[in-house]
Design goal:
Blueprint lengths: L5 E4 L19 E2 L7 E2 L2 H18 L29 H20 L11 H6 L10 H25 L1 H4 L13 H22 L2 H14 L1 E4 L5 E6 L7 E2 L5 E6 L2 E6 L10 E2 L8 H11 L16 H9 L2 E2 L8 E7 L2 E2 L9 E2 L2 E6 L5 E6 L28 E3 L7 H25 L3 H18 L5 H17 L2 H18 L5 H16 L3 H18 L5 H18 L5 H4 L2
Parallel strand pairs: 6-9
Antiparallel strand pairs: 1-5, 2-3, 4-5, 7-8, 10-11, 11-14, 12-13, 14-15, 15-16
Helix pairs in contact: 1-2, 1-4, 2-4, 2-7, 4-6, 4-7, 10-11, 11-12, 12-13, 13-14, 14-15, 15-16
């Protein structure tokens, strides 16, 4: 178990939860000074005061805009009020890290000396930032954030230097002889403020902290894995990643719990997953490389043809065999680019290829990417990387080794796959824009096309079904939601390790929907499986397990008054 070094609520949770214990409450008490931070009780307010006291000073300038203090400015609004930094969790994490540092300095009795070793801040400093691996664009974003953070902290930093600011008039003269004098006064004040901030918090330190947040912060979730905010847990952040982990992270309020999902051998390394596991090996590696700056070499990514994970990888990209009267799984394998033989006098590099081979009939074709990219890193089968939001998936253009078009049956299959991906992307854009009905129509069309060209275990088909399940719940279309949830259950059991909490939560969601629709057989089976898995992942005493156990008892009582046999249902 671990508690956060610093934490910050998501913007959509600021008016729903206590800013100290993060418990949801309908009657939150607002801080009378900054009028931004809210608490569920006086006890939480007193407990938070030590850290909130300096923060309160920084938040006071935003109290002049009470109606807009937690809202972003409207598009096209002239002279919009400043956005409250509380709505940017990264800004608050960095600010609270600075406050923690200052508190530790005060505890030493000498502000000039750094805090002693083995403090929460020193443990945080041990984390890696990987700043040298970040892209130029990322560093530009960090620099912009650093300026916002320093500007936000300026009111508190001024209180730390009363002698330095005493007798120094940092305001603009009331009567400037001309605009040039007023401009010079503003510039002088800006330079003084910048020098003051740099004396206490150098920009390089802020950039280092932002890099640490990027690589080490946890998304704090509720019991059903809905995101609530961000937190830095320095000790838990040192646990290594695996695409087939033996443990998972669960949050009991703000307390991080590390729970095993299998029996651990003596001296076996504890691992968790940093990313979403419903992805191909290439997608997982790209996400880890771009977000955590390392090349994954876990057993799930370094497989051989006989490994269980290699077989799973083939299933995740399986299509439907285009040969007439076959319709079995069409497996794909990537052939990386290779350089031509020097004996041929040609030093060009041949592009990567993809081999299509049916698991049942004799259908077999090899196609090549027109752009010559490495098939291991970017194949048209994987479409767009699901981590890259807003980018369009390129149509899968392919050609045979001889330069001719693929056979008509395969070309038609790839055309349907391209159309399905395009409609999936359009549906996701509609959903992001709040156009739920339009999103449902696009995603249902995409799902129908995926059913024609992709295997039942295909990960792209699986993701669309998951999106539709959540979308139908948002729209209140319970029957369709239950149907889509049911269709995702085999995929969850295939993709995730046994006893993974997401499997249990998916069974729980389907069971609740089935119970609502009076589908007692399906409800009993799903809720029963959910309880068995969540007993392991959450613990028998967890409130969610207790709630689902009560629902199982409720279903049992209803079944006793019906024609179902419980022994038949449990099989």
């Amino acid at each position: 178990q671990d508690v956060p070094f610093v934490k910050a609520l998501r913007a959509d949770q600021l008016n729903l939860r206590c800013h100290e214990c993060w418990v949801q409450s309908q009657s939150l008490l607002r801080c009378t000074q900054c009028k931004s931070v809210k608490y569920c009780s006086r006890t939480c307010q007193r407990r938070a005061w030590r850290l909130h006291k300096p923060e309160c000073i920084c938040l006071k300038p935003y109290t002049a805009f009470p109606s807009q203090q937690l809202l972003a400015p409207a598009a096209g609004q002239q002279n919009p009020p400043p956005v409250n930094p509380l709505t940017t969790p990264t800004v608050m994490l960095a600010s609270r890290t600075f406050f923690q540092l200052e508190i530790e300095k005060q505890n030493t009795g000498d502000k000039a000396k750094p805090p002693p070793n083995k403090t929460p801040f020193s443990t945080f400093q041990d984390l890696v930032s990987n700043l040298s691996e970040h892209t130029k664009k990322q560093m530009q974003e960090y620099s912009h954030l650093a300026r916002l953070i320093q500007r936000f902290l300026l009111p508190y930093i001024r209180t730390l230097t009363p002698k330095l600011t005493q007798g120094t008039d940092t305001t603009v003269p009331a009567t400037a002889e001309n605009e040039d004098d007023e401009y010079v006064a503003h510039e002088q004040k800006a330079v003084q403020d910048q020098n003051l901030v740099q004396a206490y918090l150098a920009t390089s330190d802020v950039l280092e902290w932002l890099g640490k947040f990027c690589c080490n912060a946890f998304t704090i979730c509720d019991a059903e894995f809905r995101p609530v905010g961000l937190g830095v847990f320095p000790e838990a952040a040192m646990i290594n990643h695996s695409c087939r982990p033996n443990c998972h992270v669960l949050f009991d309020g703000l307390r991080l719990q590390l729970r095993s999902i299998k029996k651990l051998r003596k001296e076996e390394e504890v691992t968790i997953s940093y990313i979403e596991l419903a992805s191909t090996s290439a997608e997982r590696r790209a996400a880890l490389r771009n977000g955590y700056f390392f090349q994954c070499s876990c057993p799930a990514c370094c497989t051989t043809a006989t490994d269980e994970m290699h077989i799973l990888e083939k299933e995740l990209t399986a299509l439907v065999c285009p040969k007439k009267d076959c319709k079995e799984s069409l497996y794909t394998s990537c052939i990386p680019p290779s350089s031509a033989s020097e004996a041929d006098g040609d030093s060009t590099q041949t592009p990567g290829k993809t081999l299509f081979r049916c698991c049942s009939c004799d259908f077999e074709e090899t196609v090549v990417n027109e752009d010559g990219t490495d098939a291991q890193q970017q194949t048209f089968l994987e479409g767009k990387d699901h981590q890259q939001r807003g980018s369009k998936a390129a149509s899968p253009k392919a050609q045979t080794i001889k330069g001719a078009s693929p056979p008509p049956s395969l070309a038609a299959l790839l055309d349907v796959l391209a159309e399905a991906r395009q409609q999936r992307d359009d549906g996701n854009k509609h959903r992001s824009a709040g156009m739920l009905k339009e999103a449902q129509l696009e995603l249902e069309t995409a799902f129908s096309k995926f059913n024609k060209c992709a295997g039942n275990t295909n990960v792209e088909r699986f993701r669309v079904a998951c999106s539709l399940a959540h979308l139908c719940v948002d729209l209140g279309d319970w029957e369709k939601a239950a149907s889509y949830y049911s269709s995702t259950l085999p995929g969850y059991k295939l993709i995730y390790p046994p006893n993974h909490p997401l499997i249990g939560l998916q069974f729980a969601a389907h069971g609740k929907l089935a119970l609502h629709l009076n589908q007692l057989k399906q409800a009993y089976q799903s809720l029963n499986q959910a309880v068995e898995i969540l007993k392991i992942t959450h613990g028998r005493a967890h409130s969610l397990v207790q709630e689902l156990s009560q629902l199982v008892c409720q279903v049992q009582i209803e079944i006793q008054h019906s024609s179902y046999d419980l022994d038949d249902l449990s099989q």
